[in-house]
Write a structure and sequence with these properties.
The structure is a homodimer of 149-residue chains.
Chain A lengths: L1 H16 L6 H12 L6 H9 L7 H13 L3 E5 L5 E5 L6 E5 L5 E4 L2 H13 L2 E14 L10
Parallel strand pairs in A: 3-5
Antiparallel strand pairs in A: 1-2, 3-4
Helix pairs in contact in A: 1-2, 2-3, 2-4, 3-4
Bound molecules: manganese (II) ion (2 copies) and zinc ion (ZN) (2 copies).
Chain A binds a DNA duplex (30 and 30 nucleotides) through α2 and α4.
DNA sequence: CACGTTATTGCAAATCACTTGCAGCTGTCA
DNA sequence: TGACAGCTGCAAGTGATTTGCAATAACGTG
């Protein structure tokens, strides 16, 4: 919890520098995101936050997500279903594997693939700015797990 | 052109097997896609097709794209801008690099990255079914091109 | 080739996620 | 505490895509 509080405090300073205000709503939404361990969409965030403040509106969630994203406090993802899903940016870069049967989102990170993407872009004459990598897979029966393809 | 015609004919058989019909509209849209060398969205396809048949409607394009996708005749992509973009599936697998300044979409394919993705999924206990890989980059000044990162 | 069945189409209306105008509310800072 | 500008809730607006419906066109059959 202390971590969450620290992040909220730090973010408040960031906002102030941008001439923006730390409102109750932003504080609440930020807390919901800091406590989330999944990738909720606007409606999901709204539902969780609404439980703490029944006067909150969905438009405020949308507007806040935009502010948070601009400030670099969160990341937005758009998986196959199309809707925007968010997660706190206070973690190192990673990509996602989506279980096509359950919809579960699994995080992973691979230096090798990051490097490979950079190299591919470079070979095409580009500097890689960002990327989107999503794997869609199906759980293998147990015992099939291993590194040989 | 013969290639296009052959594909359309082959696709007609495919449709028939599914109890579907090869209509003028589908034939036209399929031709537009076969002749496209970019990644047009529904409206773009509509515009091109409309030039050949001014009675065509946009909803038919949308419905047709769904049929074509289900039949595996085309692929649908949703890059960052959100709208669905399509391309003929009659080509080998590749991924895309988007120039963030011009919006230009560049195709590339890399066995190494395909293999790496498969391995990552496997290590997480998953069989990779499909994936989405998009690189967003900025053109490097000429002379900077090379394979050493 | 004409016919009947049923998939398909054009059009308008409906969805859906997200955005925005507006009037009242609330941080901030002096 | 007071003024000012940023924020918020609410309702209406967007833009892409979908869908209900009646008219139309495919396609197998006779
Ligand atoms: Mn994540
Ligand atoms: Mn392509
Ligand atoms: Zn990555
Ligand atoms: Zn690929």
């Amino acid at each position: 919890m202390t971590g969450t509080e620290r992040r909220v405090a730090g973010f408040e300073g960031q906002l102030r520098e941008a001439g923006l205000r730390m409102t109750q709503q932003r504080r609440l939404i930020l807390r919901v995101l800091a406590e989330a361990d999944d990738h909720p969409d606007a409606k999901g965030i709204f539902t969780r936050a609404f439980a703490h403040d029944p006067t909150l509106s969905l438009s405020t969630v949308y507007r806040t997500m935009k502010v948070l994203e601009t400030q670099g406090a969160i990341e937005r993802h758009a998986f196959e279903d199309g809707v925007s899903r968010y997660e706190h940016a206070d973690q190192e870069h990673h990509d996602h594997l989506i279980d096509i049967d359950s919809g579960e989102v699994i995080e992973f990170s691979s230096d090798a693939i990051e490097e490979l993407q950079r190299r591919i872009a470079a070979e095409l004459g580009y500097e890689l700015v960002r990327h989107r990598l999503e794997l869609y897979g199906r759980k293998k029966p147990p015992g099939t797990r291993g590194k040989k393809g």
